Amino acid sequence: MKNNSVLLAEDDPNFGSVLRDYLELNDFDVVLAADGLEALRIFKSQESFDLCILDVMMPNKDGFTLAADIRKIDKEVPLIFLTAKSMKEDMVKGFQIGADDYLTKPFDSEVLLYKIRALLNRKQGDKEEEQIHFKIGRYEYDSEMRILKLGSNERTLSPKEGALLKLLATNKNSLLKRSDALNKIWKDDNYFTGRSMDVYLAKVRKYLGDDPKVSIINVHSEGFRLVDET
Questions:
Q1: What is the pTM of this model?
Q2: Domain of 65, in residue numbers
Q3: Contact between residue 23 and residue 6 where contact means Cβ atoms under 8 Å apart
Q4: What is the pLDDT of residues 159-207, one digit of tens each?
Q5: Rounded to whole angstroms, how far apart are CA atoms 217 and 226?
Q6: Same domain? 215 vs 186
Q7: HSE toward the beta carbon, residue 184, CA cutoff 13 A
Q8: Does 103 share its domain with 215?
Q9: Which whole-number Å values give the CA distances from 43 to 53, 107, 189, in the listed order?
Q10: Disulfide: which of 23, 76, 81, 93 matches 28 by Cβ 3.0-4.6 Å?
Q11: What is the DSSP string of 169-219?
């Protein structure tokens, strides 16, 4: 089974290393960032994280600002704040931004572990309610295995191809905003990621080309629509 991935943003190198090692001993894959700017860069560049642990007081970009930036990209990933202060105002601000939990230093590592597992279990429960299997014209798509099937023919899609087709299928016959797809899959909506998405969109369009009743149409300046006429 794949380990859960954690982004840990902590500017204290000693504490950050100890916490990373502790979480890795408990079967988590941890990426440690030394400040908020580095953490945001890592979050944008990696395919996805299952959870983020953010120190509040960090140079270059504090934890609250980092959390707000992450929430613009991913509204679902669980966030835990770490802080040296126990001020009520900070706790309220953190929860307003979208934090799922809060720990004041120093804290018991086992308590953090309990909170992490509780959040991930809750997230997994939500995930199980998501649609996995899609019918698209004569095609069947398993978004978990990323397998697109037409009759006896099967094709395994790449992670980004699969994520793009899942978004299109989830919004079948409705508008999928270009910015939503870019932020959800590429975690950015600049010119270069936009061009990259166009390449993947062309591939997905080609994969669906054997059913004339299925098409992906461009909606000028807005996004795309997966049209299923069956």
A1: 0.59
A2: 4-128
A3: yes
A4: 999 999 999 999 999 899 998 899 888 888 888 889 999 999 999 999 9
A5: 7
A6: yes
A7: 17
A8: no
A9: 12, 25, 14
A10: 23
A11: HHTTTSEEEHHHHIIIIIS--SHHHHHHHHHHHHHHHHHTTT-TTEEEEEE
